[in-house]
Amino acid sequence: MAGVQEVEVIQKVEMIQEVEVIVAHTERTTLRVGDVFLKVDGNQARAAREVEAMALVPVPTPEVLWRKPPVLALAAVSGTVLGRLGEPSVASAAAWGAAGAAIRTLHEAPLPPWPGPGLDKLSAELETECDWLLANEVLPADVVTRGRQVAEAALRPWKPAFVHGDLQITHVFVDGDRVTGIIDWSEAARGDALYDLATLTLGQPERVGDLLAGYGGDVDLDVIRGWWAHRSLVVIRWLTEHGFDPFLPGCEVDVLRSLI
Question: Residue 111 carries which DSSP code?
Fold first, then answer.
């Protein structure tokens, strides 16, 4: 029969859970321990904004368990991601439609009190990154030049909406035809609603119709394509410097090539 100390040791061992590294780079690290996500962010203003954004938005978000800078603890959301960049989404048309309806709800919410990047900043960012891509011969000149021309369609005045700001396909969780959670709100701000729609469908052009069926309204597809090009061009340097590969099949470089 096990003694008291042996029982305590067994209980402690049973409580040990595997630590999974979700994202790790010089700006942020996200770990998963069981049903808890621990986000370590060196920018505390950004982390505070994420917490505030989740408290404001009228869509499902992770529960904030606690925050002790530089760590933010969030509960895992149920369901599975809508898809992954570089892979065809296996989610149903209804799931994509539900995502569109949730995004419409977000975009119609009262604006957050803080601004997002304006047209001048986004235009300057595009110019800087295109110059870097050309100077370092990262991509053929025709790909950069044509991609930049496509991106210009997105750089026009827009009516500000409450946007997620980084609505990657892995940031939306669904269960059947129901959205169960939208994660990673650190870039939430006032911005162009079509940027969110474009970010979610990056590399998934065949699902745009399903998304818009739930979102509703008239959407300029040239602007969507413009944001695909803009996002792909401006993130290539950051991705390569932080351990990601934009040249993987179906990812940013392939998206650019598909637009020219």
Answer: P
* pLDDT tens-digit series, residues 169-216: 999 999 999 999 999 999 999 999 999 999 999 999 999 999 999 999
Residues of the chain with pLDDT under 50: 1-2, 4-14
Listed in sequence order, the DSSP H helices in 37-160 are: 44-56, 93-107, 119-135, 141-151
> Which among 200, 152, 146, 143 has a CA at the least distance from the CA of 173?
200
- Per-residue model confidence (pLDDT) at position 15: 57
Classified by CATH at the fold level, domain 77-259 comes out as: Aminoglycoside 3'-phosphotransferase; Chain: A, domain 2 (3.90.1200)
Per-domain residue ranges of the chain? 77-259
Name the nearest CA neighbour of 70 among 48, 37, 95, 97: 48
- Match 């994420």 to its residue by tokens: 50
Q: With beta carbons less than 8 A apart as the criterion, state whether 166 and 186 touch.
A: yes
Strands 80-81 and 64-68: unpaired
| Pairwise CA distance, residues 56 & 215, whole Å | 20
pLDDT confidence of residue 16: 61
Pair of tokens at residue 127:
């110019």
CA 142 to the chain's CA centroid: 28
